[in-house]
Amino acid sequence: MVGAAALLACLFFILDLQLPLGVANAVLYSAVVFLSAASQYRWLPIGTAITCSLLTIMAAPFSPRVPGLPAWFEWGNHLFSLFGIWTPVMFIYQRRRTELLLKEVNERLEQGVDARTADLAASRLALERSEEQLHTLTGRILTAQEEERRRIAQDLHDDVNQRLALLMLDLQTVDRQIGSAPAEAQEGIRNALKGLEELSDDVRFMAYRFHPSILDDLGLKAALQRLLDDFSSRTGVKALFVHQPLDHQLDKTTSTAVYRVIQESLSNIARHAKATRVEVEVTVEDEGLAVVVRDDGRGFDQLAIDRAEGGLGLLNMRERLLAVQGYCEVESNPGRGTTVSMYVPLARVAT
């Protein structure tokens, strides 16, 4: 590139010697300056402009004159060519300055983007850790809640209900011993026995609501069948339980989570769905336990529920399943019923 610029400058110098002094042909040297700008040397355009200016001045005394033209016009027009030589230099260095400023701006912008990206990544990581800690804490709270429910249910069954049973036995003994007592006294004792019997039934039902002992004694399948039977008798809604043989024995935490989510689903159906039929399907897949709860009720606008981030019941269902590495999905349309699908990996299942 330097050699081409030098050759072109020599050609223009020879041309300058042949043309009259009054012709501003030296402006052609600007092409040589532009050509030198393509070089990797940043100083070369200035060096080229100085060289071309010297060649122009050196050629002036040897250039032919045009008869009749004043000397000042010839020299002025010739020296005006210097403007054409140095204008490209100013253009080139202004452009390089602009490119340098743009490069600096781009570098600062990239640094800002990198810093912002790092901040966002750190914030995302912190958020993920916070969510993980929140899910862990929620799982521990739910586990502690279930343990407390189990303890209360056991106390109601083993302590309060047993004491009520003993009290009923005592009243029955008294009833037999006062056979000759007035009818009013006997009727009072019978009413007391009836009240105690009803209270005992209420305590047993309360204990069952706190924690169904059948879940621990006979497993998830029997507990769900009992839950659906109670739901059907209480609401009048036909309930169908479809299941595969559960070859895997679910651990206590997973069984409780699945049971509570199905229980919450049935509770929502009883309160809101106005359904006539409910189906609970439990299947064992390759790597997990899949449960589907369907109803033929009135359904709801799922988009509105999603925008509202769901209700407390749905949030509770999802948190329970997250605690056992599962998940829950809800599909519904107005007038077309609701389907609740849940999945629990078999990694949480003890064989």
TrEMBL record:
Membrane-crossing segments per the record: 42-63, 75-93
Alphabetized Pfam families for the sequence: HATPase_c (PF02518), HisKA_3 (PF07730)
Classification via InterPro entries: HATPase_C_sf, HATPase_dom, His_kinase_dom, Sensor_HK_TwoCompSys, Sig_transdc_His_kin_sub3_dim/P
Reaction(s) catalysed by this chain's protein: ATP + protein L-histidine = ADP + protein N-phospho-L-histidine
Enzyme Commission no: 2.7.13.3
GO molecular function: ATP binding; phosphorelay sensor kinase activity; protein dimerization activity
Histidine kinase domain boundaries: 258-348
PROSITE patterns attached to this UniProt entry: HIS_KIN (PS50109)
PANTHER family on file: NITRATE/NITRITE SENSOR PROTEIN NARX-RELATED, NITRATE_NITRITE SENSOR PROTEIN NARQ
Identification of the protein by name: histidine kinase
